[in-house]
């Protein structure tokens, strides 16, 4: 027990001693450290005490002090020199450090640029592999038009069957297709007046000859012609079969012949012999009866009262306002006693349109002082064109009745009414439309430009005209203006339209449109000086597309199908069936899934159809059209350096085919001018004249459907150009 108590006491004392040591030891250390810090602080202000503390200044002589001072000055200068050297070394190191930092940043920038360039190359290689696979998997090469096939001899003689007329209900029964190959280009030969002076007046034939020479299908080679065109009429003697047989290439039955009757006299019938036999020839005239008109073979012409050629839009009035002074107009007189049926229609028109109403009408059916004798049974016109213009230009609609002679489907007087209504922008109302023959109705939809009603609708005519809104009135008026300017306004337009209709029947496409020449401003032996392009400071963070070699857009792929698939639009919408274009903005597109099911050639779907974000979107062109490139046309005038800067910024632009520079200045560029090398050809065109419109000309050097036209000082980023290009090909 005692041993245990003593042990406990000993342990307690030991713990107290250890605790005291732990408390006292830090206090002692803190004391000495504080004292040392205080002494060091006081000594910091006496750094020179040991140097200047001499034992006894009084015992030193003046020379010793001077020596000491000189020694101190020397030490000071030495220290200053050392400090300057150290400062110079420090500045040098700082400069080297800054330079190294700049090199590092440049290296990082170059690394990013090289990585972007590598990414572009990878995308380009991928696209090239896709193109290679398409070429390998292609079953047949792209077809090109075969050699032009033309006849070598004039038509052979086939005796004419002695019947009144051939039953030519279509071109197959009466047309020789062997003379008109699909690749022939539809050449036609026009008879000179010396070859058939008895069939037409010499003056009219010369006018028509001068007009037809502007047609691109015209040829002087009678042996190679597909069609033979002859003008008849305007003679004192009647035309008979014997005179037709005297045509050099009549061939016995008149096959592949078009006989135009362009009489300026609308009050007399064509002067044909009663027993004339036109054989297989196509007759084109304005006078037609239902018995002799061979539907699908003969052609009903409009009135040829216009000038020989040129623009006719200047003679037409303004199309606004939509509603004019008179709601409906008509002026004419009957030169014979009409049938009861026809007379009832006329009386109904006068009765129902002259009732009490706020609308105004111009209806005149007597013309006592302006009558002209005629042997044609129809509603004759009153006065001259100048007089009729006064009320037609104030009429919203004008009445065009069917001929009084129920056997006639068209007369020159009726065609004159149609011609003047279109010319003066009065919408024609065809009364008894079901028995009226309209010009070129084989291809023209007349009900888009006119009101077509049957005779039984006359009591409702006023109500019907009132229901037509202003926007439809203006649309019909614009459509009529287009028909007038394109097909009826001049003798040239009538002849060209007739030939185009025949060509359309036999399935021959028109000739390609002629591009504007692109003469280079440089001579053949001159090679411009090249230079590296200026790399832009700010490049896009990601690739905008692959860099591909220039390739031409596929063109003229629908030569033999556009007339069948979009023939209606050609004649009634676009109004240009006379030329063949390499591509149009109205070409049909494939559905979005067709590129994955059998029609994927040339397409570049985004991420093979899986979609994705910006990276996948930039790697492929996408869209519902095959791959495409674009051409940039730059207009410039004596601003060389500005042009060079603009060209340099185009370096590395994806999908760029070539750059066309339209040089508007009469002065050629300097020979020492350095042209940037941008990866695509730069073609400099010498403009014929200084005009801002030169940028819009269809130059033959343009090989892509998409074209970007800019000024030489335009500054567009690559992403902006690519956005516009993608928007262009997707619309």
UniProtKB/TrEMBL annotation:
Zinc among keywords: no
Gene3D superfamilies in UniProt: Spore Coat Polysaccharide Biosynthesis Protein SpsA, Chain A
Span of domain Exostosin GT47: 205-467
Membrane-topology annotation of the record: Single-pass type II membrane protein
Main location class: endoplasmic reticulum
Regions that span the bilayer: none
Annotated Pfam families: Exostosin_GT47 (PF03016), Glyco_transf_64 (PF09258)
Domain Glycosyl transferase: from-to ranges: 630-726
Any GO MF annotation of the entry: glycosyltransferase activity
Localisation: Endoplasmic reticulum membrane
Source superkingdom: Eukaryota
GO cellular component, one term: endoplasmic reticulum membrane
Coiled-coil ranges (or none): 69-131
GO biological process, one term: heparan sulfate proteoglycan biosynthetic process
tRNA processing in keyword set: no
Keywords: Coiled coil, Disulfide bond, Endoplasmic reticulum, Membrane, Transferase, Transmembrane, Transmembrane helix
Family of the protein in this entry: Belongs to the glycosyltransferase 47 family.
Protein's recorded name: Exostosin-3 isoform X2
